[in-house]
Write a structure and sequence with these properties.
By secondary structure, the chain is mainly α. 68% of the residues lie in helices and 1% in strands.
């Protein structure tokens, strides 16, 4: 008769092991036994948990191990567990993920050349998209509304950002999920990336020929939809195809691209603004050309995505489509990351979306040449931000990869941004704005370098990366809504309290105070993440 030995070297007959199973688990013994729960102590001193059904040689865990390793020994080891009364871990559990860290989630081990192509594609496309987007959304579009009606410029900018962000919010989830479900010879991400770029470019190009607020708002919403049609599967590619081992580094270069592009966007937008109406038209044309070509460019630089027409997919029904949009459950880290990014970026956009008005009406209030001086100040700030953001973004990713940390650097970066936002309050002058550009720019560069890697680390199910990253990327759109509405609300409240029609200096002082508060709350929420260092 076979005997088993527990951790205390107490031997029991094999038949006595049967009670350790659940009452619904049958045994091979022909003699009925009374189902009970074993209380044999484990090494931790706690009673052993009831065991689940053991695998056979043909069960999924055994075959998965055999396919993954090509080793009969490993598969045989799992098969041997079939004769042992012990719980078998779920091979799909994130806690039991034993993949090679240099193998991506799609099962491919990329070569060094492929990793370089992925990194180059992420970096260059991030720069290319950020330049026109920031130039248009923070400088050119506000100027267009100011030219149409100076008295409603703040309200209109808040309105277009709020409505556009709602459109972007829905588009991010919808197209992220649709890309998860797509099966084609071009893969599941490539078609949406290319199509999204074309839609964005066409929408931005049409804005250049209209001068009606309602039409501008409508076309801007179409541009937001197209941009997020491209962005959702684009970001999901980092989860699909970039191995864990180098994800922080590539995320760092991607963050560097965003930081560089956003900084250059402010610089380019300020230069085009100084050229008057011809510069504004050129800005819209720049956006049309860059976005129209960006999707095509990035899929050409990346290693070609493998076709997935034969990939198994559950039958698509109305119920399955609705369920595919369901947010993840029992994933508190996921929601801490979502809330933290939303608030951090909300504080960022409170200031940067309105930087033209802040420079004109706060720093150069009452100056007859405020617009020209504001454009020059923004261009100079962009150079400062470019330098510190580039250094931070390029170094932060590799350093955090080496340290194996994501959470604490992201929280630190948020606090650094808050310190930078304090500078214009202490020094209402160009010096204060330069300090803001340097300190907050450094924090934002670190943040961008690491945050995307943190987002991937908190994903509860890699198989639904497109949908879940789409939800996390809601932070990009929700933050625009929050930033625009909060700044608009603060300015309108102060204007009403002082009985003026123009935004007073005090209004923008309160904008900085509110931005600092929500960014610090964001840092606190990030520290609440438990399963990522």
């Amino acid at each position: 008769m076979t005997e088993m030995t527990d951790d205390n070297d107490v031997k029991q007959p094999a038949d006595s092991a049967a009670p350790a199973q659940s009452s619904t688990t049958s045994t091979t013994s022909t003699t009925p036994t009374t189902p009970t729960t074993s209380t044999t102590p484990t090494t931790s001193g706690q009673p052993a948990a009831p065991a689940s059904a053991a695998p056979t040689a043909t069960s999924v865990p055994v075959q998965a191990a055999k396919l993954a390793t090509g080793d009969e020994t490993v598969a045989g080891g799992l098969a041997t567990l079939a004769s042992v009364d012990t719980a078998v871990p779920d091979e799909a559990s994130a806690f039991m993920d034993m993949r090679d860290p240099m193998v991506s989630a799609d099962g491919h081990r990329p070569t060094t050349a492929e990793l370089i192509r992925l990194g180059v594609g992420f970096t260059i496309s991030a720069v290319a998209c950020a330049i026109p987007w920031v130039a248009l959304s923070t400088i050119i579009l506000p100027r267009v509304f100011e030219l149409i009606n100076p008295d409603t410029k703040v309200a209109m900018l808040g309105l277009v950002n709020a409505i556009g962000s709602i459109a972007a919010l829905l588009a991010n989830i919808v197209f992220g999920t649709l890309s998860d479900l797509t099966r084609s010879r071009f893969g599941k991400r490539t078609p949406w990336i290319v199509a999204g770029g074309l839609v964005t470019g066409a929408s931005i190009g049409l804005i250049s020929i209209v001068n009606n607020e309602a039409v501008i708002v409508t076309l801007w919403c179409c541009a937001q939809i197209g941009y997020n049609m491209m962005l959702a599967p684009y970001v999901a590619t980092m989860s699909d195809r970039v191995p864990d081992k180098v994800r922080g580094t590539i995320s760092g270069f991607y963050g560097a691209g965003i930081a560089i592009g956003q900084t250059l966007g402010s610089f380019v937008g300020a230069l085009l603004l100084a050229r008057g109406s011809s510069g504004i038209f050129s800005a819209w044309m720049m956006g049309m050309g860059i976005f129209g070509l960006c999707g095509i460019f990035v899929v050409a630089v990346w290693p070609r995505e493998r076709g997935n027409k034969t990939e198994v997919r559950a039958p698509i029904t109305a119920k399955s489509v609705v369920m595919s949009f369901r947010p993840p459950r029992h994933a508190p880290d996921f929601y801490y990351a979502l809330a933290g990014r939303t608030l951090m970026m909300g504080g960022y956009w409170m200031i940067n979306t309105y930087q033209l008005y802040i420079a004109q009406d706060y720093i150069y209030a009452g100056d007859p040449n405020a617009t020209k001086k504001a454009a020059a100040l923004i261009a100079s700030m962009a150079i400062v931000t470019l330098i510190v953001s580039l250094v931070a973004a390029v170094t932060a990713g590799p350093i955090t990869d080496r340290l194996g940390m994501r959470k604490l650097p992201v929280a630190f970066a948020s606090c650094l941004f808050a310190v930078g936002s304090l500078m214009p309050l202490l020094f209402r002058s160009p010096v204060g704005m330069y300090l803001f550009a340097g300190i907050a720019g450094l924090g934002y560069g670190i943040y961008n370098a690491i945050d995307q890697a943190l987002n991937v680390a908190v994903l509860p199910n890699p198989k639904e990366a497109g949908k879940d990253l789409g939800i996390l990327n809601l932070a990009n759109t929700l933050s625009t809504v929050i930033g625009s509405l909060l700044t608009s609300a603060v300015v309108l409240i102060v204007k009403s309290a002082l009985g003026t029609t123009q935004a007073p200096v005090q209004a923008y002082a309160f904008v900085f105070v509110v931005a600092i508060c929500i960014v610090l709350v964001a840092a606190f929420l990030i520290t609440r993440i438990r399963n990522v260092r």
